[in-house]
Amino acid sequence: MIGYIIQRLLSILLTFGVVSILLFMMMHAMPGGPFDATEMPLSGAAKATIMAQYGLDQPLYVQYFKYMQGVFQLDFGIPYQSPGETVLELLGRAWVPSLILGGAGVLIGAPIGIGLGLLAALNRNTWVDYLASSIATLGLTIPVFVTSMALILVFSVWLNWLPASGWGEPRKWILPIVAYATIPMATYARYTRSAILDTLNKPFVMVLRAKGLSERKVIFKHVLRNSAIPMVTVFLPMFIGTATGSIFVEAMFRIPGLGAYFVSSIVTKDYPLEMALILMITVMFCFAYFLADIAYAILNPRIRLKEGTSK
Amino acid sequence: MMSANKNNLYPQKSVKKEKSSIKSQIARNPLYYSWRRFCSNRGAVFSGSLLLIIVSMALFAPLITPTSYEEQKFLTENLAFPSAQHWMGVDDLGRDFYTRIVYGARVSLSIGFVAAAFSVLIGLPLGAMAGFFGGPADWIIMRIIEIFSVVPPLLVALLLAALAGGGFISIVFIAALFGWVQVCLLVRAQVMAFRSKEFIRAAQALGGTPAYVLFRHLIPNSISPVIVGFVQAIPLAMMLEAGLSFLGVGIAPPLPSWGQMINIGINFMFFYWHLALFPTLALALTVLSTTLFGDGLRDALDPTLRG
Amino acid sequence: MIPALELRNLSKTFDIDGGIKSFFGGLKQQKTAVDNVNIKLMPNSVLGLVGESGSGKSTCGLMAMRLLDVTKGNIFLKGTEITNFSTAELKPRRKQMQIVFQDNYASLNPMMTLSQIISEPFVIHGLHTRTERLELVADLLEKVGLGVGYTNRYPHELSGGQRQRVSIARALALKPDILVADEPTSALDVSVKAQVINLLHDLQAEMGLSVLFISHELNVIRSLADEVVVMYRGRVVEQAPTETIFQDARHPYTKELLNAIPSFVPRQRIRRTFMSPLQIAEAIPIFSEEDILPFNEQISSQPQLAKISNDHFVEAFIEQRRTQR
User: Inter-chain contact B276–A278, Cβ cutoff 8 Å?
Assistant: First the structure.
């Protein structure tokens, strides 16, 4: 078991290392730094000073190592677009709306999704199933900015019930959170439905019913527990995935969250901010996958007890 | 040493010849049954038909639209709502909106198909190699896949799109870059499942080399995952393109893209909501129909691929 | 007479490791599937290889076909050692030995017609023209009892017994001298079993095949094999002509297997209990050196094969001749 954990850890670290190098190189391949002639024409000397100040004049690999050094100390540098604060501070500000959006979205969407999936699975092939599955499919296939647009059109433009943008008061939060919640809801509905259906088809459920166990107990005590494994392992990466899915919602509703800053950092070629964001999210994904793997290994006794396979 | 007559339990009967009722039976390739399964799935058939309509509209775009997509002919009727002359109204630059929407279909669908094709081109050989050779080859390919999984695809796509400056070809490549993983995984799983089956062993026992086995047996039996992977990659590519265009780093105007049009539509949505509505509907319908069609195809070809 | 197929001191160990874990120096456990097995398959005869699941008999068969790599030992095909032959060197020799598997459905490529399946051997070795191939396929189908009308069928349209016949037809296409049959009837119903066994019997007589028949069913073996080798946990524990095994088995495991055959006469049914490995190990016969025929190069304290008559070998403890004072 320990061996497996160490194995996964090393593997994830390797992946992370490769990714960080690739990202770093990509970032610096972007034509035109932030101090390009067109944006902010500077004289040669002034430009050189600023480059030196930001450390942009040194060879790439030196820059990389210095940067990674900083990263491990949580120092991401200073964003070009607002030099008054560090990247960390800026992100600290931006973090909050995204967290609320994502957190609320998942917390609302997941239970609804699980409920839908459960309903669909238990009433397989009836209209309940079709309805629930359709909702889930719609949620997954229609891109989130399309749903946001649809929501805005219906509730803001035509019905005029809710505001369409901004982030000041909680009232403004409703639409974005609903728009956002469709993703976890749909994903969970799908997973839950297929996981429960798979379990229901297993012979042991038939045995339980034959023993005379009430349907209620069969479902809640046995089926759910068995279906929990895939759901649990998918939870963490999805939670992290909120960070990226939120980009569209934030753009749609003009919310000053991480996603919005990311888009602006791309446009302004703000290296420190971009790198920091991508790295952070990559780290979170790595961590999430790692935890999910471990959780799966722990929960699934078949993997836990069998240390390896013979050829 | 002749084998003696061993007749303890099995009396020596001569081998019975099986009656061959050739006349009433036609040989049925396994794929034929998949076709039947597909046809019985009403949702899939419906989506498929819808998709066919959309594709036809895209193909015959010049024939069914009054003007070209960039002619700003109707500036006097700017932002007009749908009418008999302009089925979807006029956009903010005086262009017939219906035309723009139809040509937008061309852009989305072509990006979808081409990106999906590239995804298969990359994913199929990698998946086959990973599944067949296992060991170190598999490990490396799985690591590569892991790299592509932990990086948030959208963010990096944004980065790459900004780097490349948008444009049709770069978007296609970016979409393919993130689409091959799914195909690769599907093919790998299929090849691994078949690798230990006895007919592969039999082929080896007959004297087949690994290359022969791979090309004659494993890859033909992987058609299902490849088709499924291809068809499922299309909506993913389309959504990526729409997303990138929406954020401003995708297809540049005047070439119409639904994502781009939605972005513009936001600015006008409170009054001229038709500019936001139609691209939204178009995108939603197309993605929905391709996804459902893909799911139906998957269920028909191999229900075990689900999830 | 040179044996058609000879396995000499054959051993196979599997490494159990977690893939990349061993790369980082993880634990490497080993499982010995086959331990020092010696088998001589004579031309134009049937040798039955018997044992329960996990005894290593299938592994032996696969190694004999060079489908699995050998850990230790040698394989001789008609006198030529093929243990370390490369794929290229093996290819021409593959025409001389073929295999039929237990899982008849997985043995056939579901996307190929029977005609394609049976002519695959010709395709691989580049033999015969198209028309010749079609004729040969038709002949083979007749030979195994399926009519010509089956040529364009697909495997999923056949029953288990019919698929097994197809596997046999494919195996015989190249007219091999040796046929390894790995539990070909274990997955079939009793009546179909009978048909396939009769088929194999007829074909063996007709083509002079040397058959290595691997099975766990003793009654099947009895009706087909000339000689029987009993395997237990990777080792050969008894070897003798068929009737000798059935009438004069000496090893406790063989006796257990014989007792386990279901009886058709109710009155003769006995209550069966199966001995644990420990009990079997304790019941191994002990012979003193004088009683047995000279055979072993070296007498060890571990159980080893002892020759108790011209063609009967049993695994036993051999007590060394007491040296004269």
Answer: no
Which among C15, C16, C26 has CB closest to A3? C26
Task: Please name the residue of chain C whose CA is at the shortest distance from the CA of residue B217.
Answer: C109
For residue C69, the distance in angstroms to the closest alpha carbon of chain A comes to 12
**Rounded distance between C-alpha atoms, residue B98 and residue B78, angstroms:** 14
From the list B163, B259, B291, the residue facing A141 with the nearest CB is B291
The DSSP code sequence of A32-43 is S-TT-TTTS---
Cross-strand partners of A130: none
Q: How many CA atoms lie within 13 A of B278 on its CB side?
A: 26
Cβ–Cβ under 8 Å, residues A109 and A188: yes
Confirm or reject contact between B211 and chain C (CB < 8 A): no
Give me the mean pLDDT over the A74-100 stretch: 71
DSSP 8-state code for residue A216: H
Which residues does chain C have within 8 Å of residue A6's beta carbon, measured at their own beta carbons?
Answer: 24
Say yes or no for a CB contact (<8 Å) between C21 and A308.
yes
- Decide: C229 and C66 in contact? Cβ < 8 Å: no
Nearest CA in chain C to A306: C18
Highest mean pLDDT among A211-215, A247-251, B136-140 belongs to: B136-140
Rounded Cα distance between B209 and B197, Å, is: 16
Smallest Cβ distance to C149: which of B20, B198, B204?
A: B20
Closest residue in B to A22 (Cα–Cα)? B147
Instruction: Select from A28, A174, C116 the least CA-distant residue to B202.
Output: C116
Q: Which of C65, C125, C145 sits opposite B205 (nearest CB)?
A: C65
Task: Tell me what ipTM this predicted complex has.
Answer: 0.78
The per-residue b/e assignment along B267-284, b for 16 or more CB within 10 angstroms, e otherwise, is eebeebbbbbbbbbbbbb
Spell out the residues 6+ positions from residue B260 whose beta carbon is closer than 8 angstroms to its own. B245, B246, B248, B250, B251, B252, B253
* pTM attached to this predicted model: 0.75
Could you tell me whether strands C80-81 and C72-77 are parallel, antiparallel, or unpaired per DSSP bridges? antiparallel
Looking at A187-196, B5-14, B170-179, C189-198, which range is the least confident one? B5-14
**Residue numbers in C near A308 (CB within 8 A):** 16-19, 21, 29
Phi, psi of C44 (to 5 degrees): 55, 45
| Beta carbons within 10 angstroms of residue B258's beta carbon | 31
Q: How far is CA A199 from the centre of its chain?
A: 28
- Which subunits have 3 or more CB–CB pairs within 8 Å of chain B? A, C
pLDDT (tens place) for every residue of chain B, 307 residues total: 334 444 445 444 444 444 444 333 456 677 777 788 788 877 788 888 888 888 888 888 777 777 777 777 777 777 777 777 777 777 777 778 888 888 888 888 888 899 999 999 998 888 888 888 878 888 889 888 888 877 777 777 877 777 777 678 888 888 888 888 888 988 888 888 888 788 888 888 888 888 888 888 887 888 888 888 888 888 888 888 888 888 777 777 778 888 888 888 877 777 777 787 888 888 888 888 888 888 788 777 765 544 3
Q: What share of chain A is helix, strand, coil (3-state, %, to 5)?
A: 75, 0, 25
Q: Do B9 and C219 touch (CB under 8 A)?
A: yes
* Residue in B147, B276, B307 nearest the CB of A19: B147
- Cβ of C101 within 8 Å of Cβ of B212? The answer is no
Interface of A with C in 4-63 (CB under 8 A): 4, 6-7, 10-11
Give me the residue label for tokens 């028309």.
C131
Kindly state whether B32 is in contact with chain C, defined as any CB-CB distance less than 8 angstroms: no
